[in-house]
Amino acid sequence: MAAGAATAGLLTMGLLAGAGNAAADEGDTHHQGGAVATLDGLKTYDSARLDLGGGKTQNIAAGLFEMNVEGSGRLQTYCIDIHNPTQNKAKYLETPWAGTSLGANENAGKILWILENSYPQIGDLAALGQKSGAEGLTAKTAAAGTQVAIWRFSDGAKVEARDAQAEKLADWLEAEAQNLKEPKTSLTLEPNAVSGKAGGKLGPVTVHTDAGQVSVAASADAAGAGVKVTDKSGNAVTSASDGTELYFDVPEGTADGSAALTVQATTEIPVGRAFASPSKSQTQILAGSSESTVTAEATANWATKGAIPSVTAEKNCAKDGVDVTASNQGDSPFTFELAGTEHTIGAGESKTVTVPVDEDATYDITVKGPNGFSERFEGVLDCKTQGTPGTETPGTDGDTPSSAPSPAGGSSDEATGGEGDLANTGSSNATPVIAGIAVALLAAGGAAMFFLRKKKAAAGE
Predict the structure, then answer these.
(1) Can you give the residue ranges of the Thioester domain (predicted)?
(2) Which residues contact residue 234 at a Cβ distance below 8 angstroms, ignoring those fewer than 6 apart?
């Protein structure tokens, strides 16, 4: 009976964990644009020692993660959120610094300098070692030293590489780092939602990109309604570059409706772009990119009369919330409810409302309007690193969450470097363990019941 009860409890925990991860993996609705990637694990790493305070330390893995880009491409990233775990196969979205802990970090630009002046951007390890005074660097020790230097600026962590040469590299990078400006986005559209009356051009939607050229295409709904994507003069547009203004040309008499346009490019994503997860998985920063597919989408909503809304949303870490901007290009007021408060946007007006969201909390915001209009925005507000060393809740051995290998990347034997005593990360990797224990306990419980029944039957004879 005890075994059966324990099994039931463990099975329930496993189901809840699975449901939580599935919900989190749905991701942000209306991503602002850029690369979308899936974590593939920590691949090139060595060991570091984190000072937890109170005389306690912890050995953790430090190095390069890899991600697979939706569409095509592969990314290499470092962690900028040392006290958070990674989640298996977590989805990541290219995100402005303002939507992460980097937005309020006065040393964010120094992290970019480190990325541009160390491994893997500097692939000649002998030259990097000579410049930094770190002799005999390998890929794994160079990655570890680079990660350690980044953590000192991203998290204010007291951390050092366990390899002497990796530690020399970390110290040199920390001492030499200079503040640089945030790199340009790979691809975004601003705004990514517009509205207006049929019979005119709705927009503009401005392209922001680091790519030389992007393709432009209207959705099937737009083409079916006779809506075209044009420039300001009304000329059809199929390609664009940074700064191009796009419009939805909606013919007069078109039935009330909505449509979308998509821009896409294959490019190397700029080093230093942040990647945040819609689930609770440690924030990353880009260290290297292959040619990768990046996309962005914008929508248009039109009608002949009444309120004609458009709504956009983005994280605002400075205000601890999500900025929801509603515009109304109709001829009557647009009224909606947000965070328990009713808001009215007059004809031709717009308004931004900041919805408060607790740190690390999920948000699910829906704004509804006339003619079936509905926009939904989901995600996690992850604007701060998880405290300072010594504030975590230690395990039996004083272990805390770290940047250890993600099980998504396979066993540590498949990665470059690493040690067997490193702390593991990712709450979702507990599910297979729970399931295994549950199966074992279920078998044990069944065997125990069989034995007791047999014994009882024997006693009855």
Answers:
(1) 77-178
(2) 201, 249
pTM: 0.79
How many other CB atoms sit within 10 Å of the CB of residue 414?
Answer: 11
Tokens of 372: 């079936």
User: For each of the chain's 461 residues, which pLDDT tens digit applies?
Assistant: 233 333 333 222 222 222 233 333 334 455 778 999 999 999 999 999 999 999 999 999 999 999 999 999 999 999 999 988 899 899 999 999 999 999 999 999 999 999 999 999 999 999 999 999 999 999 999 999 999 999 999 999 999 999 999 999 999 999 999 999 999 999 999 999 999 999 999 999 999 999 999 999 999 988 888 999 999 999 999 999 999 999 999 999 999 999 999 999 999 999 999 999 988 899 999 999 999 999 999 999 999 999 999 999 999 998 999 999 999 999 999 999 888 889 999 999 999 999 999 988 889 999 999 988 999 998 888 888 864 333 333 322 333 334 444 333 333 333 344 433 344 333 333 333 334 444 444 444 444 443 444 433 444 44
Q: In whole angstroms, what is the distance from residue 265 CA to residue 247 CA? A: 19
What is each CA distance from 143 to 25, 77, 307, in whole angstroms? Answer: 28, 10, 55
Q: Are 25 and 377 in contact (CB under 8 A)?
A: no
